[in-house]
Amino acid sequence: NTGDIHATKRLDREEQPYYTLRAQARDRATNLPVEPESEFVIKVQDINDNEPKFLDGPYNAQVPEMSPVGTSVVEVKATDADDPTYGNSARVVYSILEGQPYFSVEPKTGIVRTALPNMDREARDQYLLVIQAKDMVGQMGGLSGTTSVTVTLTDVNDNPPRFSRKSYQFAVPESLPVASVVAKIKALDSDIGPNAEMDYRIIEGDGLGVFRVVPDKDTQEGVIILQKNLDFEKKSSYTLKIEASNRNIDPRFLSQGPFSDTAMVRLTVENVDEPPIFSPLSKMVVSEAAKVGTIIGTVSALDPDSTNMDPSQVGKGAALITVMDINDNAPVFAIEYETILCESAGPGQVIETISAVDKDEPPSGHRFVFSLTAETAGNMNFTLRDNKDNTASILTKRGGFQRREQAMYRLPVLIVDSGTPALSSTNTLSIRVCDCDLDGTPQSCGTEAFMLSAGLSTGALIAILACIIILLVLVLLIVTMRRRKKEPLILDEDRDVRENIVRYDDEGGGEEDTEAFDMVALRNLNAVRDSKARRDVTPEVPTLYCSRPPPYKITPDNGIFREFIWDRLKDADVDPSAPPYDSLQTYAFEGSGSVAESLSSLDSLSTDSEQNYDYLSDWGPRFRKLADLYGHGDSSNIFSS
């Protein structure tokens, strides 16, 4: 009704400083617009509702100790969210709440500065400041915020080094090795880091050349080191004046005095039991030909102790003995020469240059003389020229060397040294005749190329070699087949023999065994051979006849058995696969007839026999039937019904 615009909630300029509205007047009865739309911009007016804030706080800062008053330490900055263009809501003023009187802060800029001179880090090295920022130019009713500033004083070289004592005393054993640490001293410096680094030096005293002092980089101590051997009997004490000074000096503080200090160090040498010392040894010389027991030289020693000491010591020394050389080795070729002589070589051509070595070492150096031996001096092939520089050249006397005539020449060379007495040796130079190209490079040497030069091509040689290999293979096959072929023991095709090898204690299957041997296949053997007893088999089984046998006689049939068994025995003896123990070979072979004729028990009952067969009872169960038939028991019960 009135057209007034009201706020419907609390406004915050920091969230939205402007609002844009559109309005229009309409007829209340017809709701028709009575004017065009109008636009209204509402600006929110700021009030002081935000306190200043230090967005980068808390702060850490450093400043050198002993800095002058007003030295800048750090700048702090506070931010106020209120409108800086309207009133004093965002106008901030800085002040220090804690940290006075050492530091101050500029009200407008926020720069923290030192407020006192000669702030000493060694007295206090850290300060905690509280800085306040207040809006409304610091007036009453203004809002404020605070932050902390930690200020650390950094070190400067404002303190010189100082020894805690003016004199030091140490004891040193005279046996202390050179380069050993004798003692350590330290000057104190309140500064830290590079400002506390010190150098030490000996400025006075009688031990300037005997001792030296160096700084320890880690502890800043002065380390006294022995430079020469000590001898109690010669000098028993030393006095050193040592100076300690700062390495990095700040010129601003030179007015406070020198940045160095001195101290006296007394070193007392302690006597120890020393071993004997050899007098200086002269060089000794001995000939390598000296005999055992030859006196080479003498040595002497003395005890450096001025008083007799109880523990015994052993001194050691070194004697330098030079062995003088004598001429006891003859010169020889320097290397094993392999001399090549081309067939195209002409007379006077150098084919080799030789040199020599000698194990001896004459003082004036080696001098060798080369020559051909007397036996070869007049040869028509080669000559030798001594080059007078411990080398010699081998030259040809003629041309026309041919491998076919002689492929190798051996030339004896005599080498004499310059020793006293002079020694010599004869060395043989081997010269091979070779076919060479135009550049003198050997193509083929010796006799290996003769066949090629005779007209045989490489293909012909390969064909000959292939034929030889084929012949060797055929001979090998023939020999192998003959070794595998064996002569049959029985030539007749009907003589099929089956054999079993059994142990001596095997009695066989007896009458009940009908499958072990083929009785039909063993027959019709006519070969006769004189029997020869086998030495490793002695049959001990007594002959058994069920009836009175006729007188035993040697017949051709028995000879067949012996022949057959003997052949099998020989095969078993020479067979490498046979068992290593004695064996008995049993054969199912009867021959064409039996000497003992019938073995029928029925016929035996009708024959009056006086032989005693009681021993059959001891032969086991397989002979029990024969024992019952032929024993002394009552035979009338045999065929009872």
Automatic annotation (TrEMBL):
<keyword id="KW-1133">Transmembrane helix</keyword>
<feature type="domain" description="Cadherin">
    <location>
        <begin position="164"/>
        <end position="278"/>
    </location>
</feature>
<keyword id="KW-0325">Glycoprotein</keyword>
<dbReference type="InterPro" id="IPR039808">
    <property type="entry name" value="Cadherin"/>
</dbReference>
<keyword id="KW-0130">Cell adhesion</keyword>
<dbReference type="InterPro" id="IPR000233">
    <property type="entry name" value="Cadherin_Y-type_LIR"/>
</dbReference>
<dbReference type="InterPro" id="IPR015919">
    <property type="entry name" value="Cadherin-like_sf"/>
</dbReference>
<keyword id="KW-0965">Cell junction</keyword>
<dbReference type="GO" id="GO:0016477">
    <property type="term" value="P:cell migration"/>
</dbReference>
<comment type="function">
    <text>Cadherins are calcium-dependent cell adhesion proteins.</text>
</comment>
<keyword id="KW-0812">Transmembrane</keyword>
<dbReference type="GO" id="GO:0005509">
    <property type="term" value="F:calcium ion binding"/>
</dbReference>
<protein>
    <recommendedName>
        <fullName>Cadherin domain-containing protein</fullName>
    </recommendedName>
</protein>
<keyword id="KW-0479">Metal-binding</keyword>
<dbReference type="GO" id="GO:0016339">
    <property type="term" value="P:calcium-dependent cell-cell adhesion via plasma membrane cell adhesion molecules"/>
</dbReference>
<dbReference type="GO" id="GO:0007156">
    <property type="term" value="P:homophilic cell adhesion via plasma membrane adhesion molecules"/>
</dbReference>
<dbReference type="InterPro" id="IPR020894">
    <property type="entry name" value="Cadherin_CS"/>
</dbReference>
<keyword id="KW-1003">Cell membrane</keyword>
<keyword id="KW-0472">Membrane</keyword>
<feature type="domain" description="Cadherin">
    <location>
        <begin position="333"/>
        <end position="444"/>
    </location>
</feature>
<dbReference type="GO" id="GO:0034332">
    <property type="term" value="P:adherens junction organization"/>
</dbReference>
<keyword id="KW-0732">Signal</keyword>
<feature type="domain" description="Cadherin">
    <location>
        <begin position="1"/>
        <end position="54"/>
    </location>
</feature>
<keyword id="KW-0677">Repeat</keyword>
<dbReference type="GO" id="GO:0016342">
    <property type="term" value="C:catenin complex"/>
</dbReference>
<feature type="domain" description="Cadherin">
    <location>
        <begin position="55"/>
        <end position="163"/>
    </location>
</feature>
<dbReference type="GO" id="GO:0007043">
    <property type="term" value="P:cell-cell junction assembly"/>
</dbReference>
<dbReference type="GO" id="GO:0045296">
    <property type="term" value="F:cadherin binding"/>
</dbReference>
<dbReference type="GO" id="GO:0005912">
    <property type="term" value="C:adherens junction"/>
</dbReference>
<dbReference type="GO" id="GO:0002009">
    <property type="term" value="P:morphogenesis of an epithelium"/>
</dbReference>
<dbReference type="Pfam" id="PF00028">
    <property type="entry name" value="Cadherin"/>
</dbReference>
<dbReference type="InterPro" id="IPR027397">
    <property type="entry name" value="Catenin-bd_sf"/>
</dbReference>
<dbReference type="InterPro" id="IPR002126">
    <property type="entry name" value="Cadherin-like_dom"/>
</dbReference>
<feature type="transmembrane region" description="Helical">
    <location>
        <begin position="450"/>
        <end position="479"/>
    </location>
</feature>
<dbReference type="GO" id="GO:0044331">
    <property type="term" value="P:cell-cell adhesion mediated by cadherin"/>
</dbReference>
<dbReference type="GO" id="GO:0000902">
    <property type="term" value="P:cell morphogenesis"/>
</dbReference>
<keyword id="KW-0106">Calcium</keyword>
<dbReference type="GO" id="GO:0008013">
    <property type="term" value="F:beta-catenin binding"/>
</dbReference>
<dbReference type="Pfam" id="PF01049">
    <property type="entry name" value="CADH_Y-type_LIR"/>
</dbReference>
<feature type="domain" description="Cadherin">
    <location>
        <begin position="298"/>
        <end position="333"/>
    </location>
</feature>
